[in-house]
């Protein structure tokens, strides 16, 4: 289905109005995100996802306190991201991302599962 010229024009104008945020444009124009994406891409507009900052980089949904806990977990779980993720209720890739960001090396194949086995109180 082809949209009317007026609707297409509104989608194009929405790029500037919503700072390239497809989700915001879709919500306000009563269009689907894929439709807006298609028209913006056709016009060579760089697009942002709903959780992007103004500079186009993905925004972090993890607060500073949680990041601090992730960093502390490195020592607590001796660099085992799988075990740390399990105990922090986060995904392993999230833990690995922050550990790498702060220069930590990730260990593989670690047996100890809990802080108690490591002799650490919670």
- Form type: rod-shaped
Q: Tally the helices: what do you get?
A: 6
Give the proportion of residues in helices. Answer: 40-55%
Provide the gyration radius in Å: 22 Å
N- to C-terminal separation?
59 Å
Strand content: under 5%
Quickly give the structural class. mainly alpha
Number of strands: 0
Structural domain tally: 2
Major sheet size, sense and barrel closure: none
Point out poorly predicted stretches.
Answer: 111-115
Mean pLDDT comes to 80
Order of helices and strands: HHHHHH
Description:
The protein has 122 residues and is mostly helical. It folds into two domains: 1-59; 61-122. The chain is built from six helices and no strands. The longest helix is centred in the N-terminal third of the chain and has 13 residues, at 5-17. Mean pLDDT is 80; it is low at 111-115.
List keywords for this structure.
122 residues; mainly alpha; 6 helices
Q: Can you lay out the helices and strands and say which pair or pack?
A:
Elements: H1 5-17, H2 22-29, H3 33-42, H4 64-76, H5 81-88, H6 92-101
Provide a compact summary of the structure.
The protein has six helices and no strands. It is mainly alpha-helical and 122 residues long.
